[in-house]
C-alpha cells in the first residue's frame, strides 16, 4: 500500500481521533455524563424520528424532481425505491471515505431504471449544488437581518456566514460554466477526444439539461423543506440540552455543523462535535451545555441513519429489476446519453 493510499484510508480515522481527543480534553466526564442523563431525551427521540421517517422521504422527492428532467428508456423510479436506494447510499457515505456511497446510487439507478451513469452523476452534483446554495441563502439572510432581530452576531459568526456565501456563489458559477455547451464544440470533442473527454462532454450536456428554471425551483423548494426539518432537529436537541437560542441561532448552528462535517471522518465522529461546540461558543453558550448538545444532536442523526441505511442496504442486495423492466432494458440497449 502506497503512502497516498494509506492516507486516503486512514486520514479520516486520524481526523476523528484527533478531534475527539480535543473534544474530551479537559472535559469533566462525570459532569458530562450527569448532564446527558438529565437531558430531555423525549425531544431527542422526536428529532431522531424526523431523521428516520421524514427526511429520507423529502430528500427522495427532491432527487426524483431532479432526475425527472433526464431522458430515460426504463421505468420511472418510484418514491419508495428512491428512499431505499438513497438510505443505503447515506449509510455508505457515513462509514466510507469520499462519499463512496454515491457509486451505489449511480449503479442502482442504471441497473433498475436505465439512467445512464453520467446523467445520474450530474443529478447528484445538482443535488449537492442546491444544498450549498440553500445554506448560502440562509447565511445571506442572517447577515442582512439587523443584529437585534437575532442577537447572535459576532466576528466568528460573520466570517462563517460570509464563507458559506462565497462557497455557494463559487459552486453556482462553476456549474453554470460547466453546463454551457456548443454544438460545434460537441462535434469536435467527439471527433478528436478519447473516452475521458467524451464522458466529460456528456456530463456537461447532462448539467445543461438540468440547468433549467423548473428543475432549479423544484430542487431548491425541496431543499428548503429539508433545511426547515433540519433546523427543527437542531432546536429540539438544543432544548433537550437546556440551551435557549433564537431560531436564527439554530440556523447559524446548522450552517456551521454542515461546514464542519464536510471534513471527511467516519460517521462524522469528531467533526460534528467540534463544529457544534465551536459555533455554540461563538454564540455565547458555555462549553458544558454545548458538548451535551453536540452529543445529543449526533445521536439523533447517527443512529436513525445507521438503522434505516442498514435495512435499505440489505434490501438492495436482494432487489433485482422486474422481468418486464429487465427485458425492456435489454431490448432498448444502453440508456441514451444526454
Descriptive report:
The protein has 338 residues and is an all-alpha fold. It has one domain (28-321). The protein has 15 helices and no strands. Helix 3 (41-67) packs across helix 14 and helix 6 (117-144) crosses helix 11.
Summarize the structure.
With 338 residues, this protein is mainly α. It has helices at 3-24, 29-38, 41-67, 79-95, 101-113, 117-144, 147-150, 155-178, 183-192, 195-210, 213-240, 247-260, 271-282, 287-318, 323-332.
Quote the beta fraction.
under 5%
**Topology order in helix (H) and strand (E) letters:** HHHHHHHHHHHHHHH
The main pleated sheet reads as: none
Protein structure class? mainly alpha
Percent of residues in helices: over 70%
Output the keywords.
338 residues, mainly alpha, 0% strand
What does the secondary structure layout of this molecule look like, with pairings?
Blueprint: H1 3-24, H2 29-38, H3 41-67, H4 79-95, H5 101-113, H6 117-144, H7 147-150, H8 155-178, H9 183-192, H10 195-210, H11 213-240, H12 247-260, H13 271-282, H14 287-318, H15 323-332
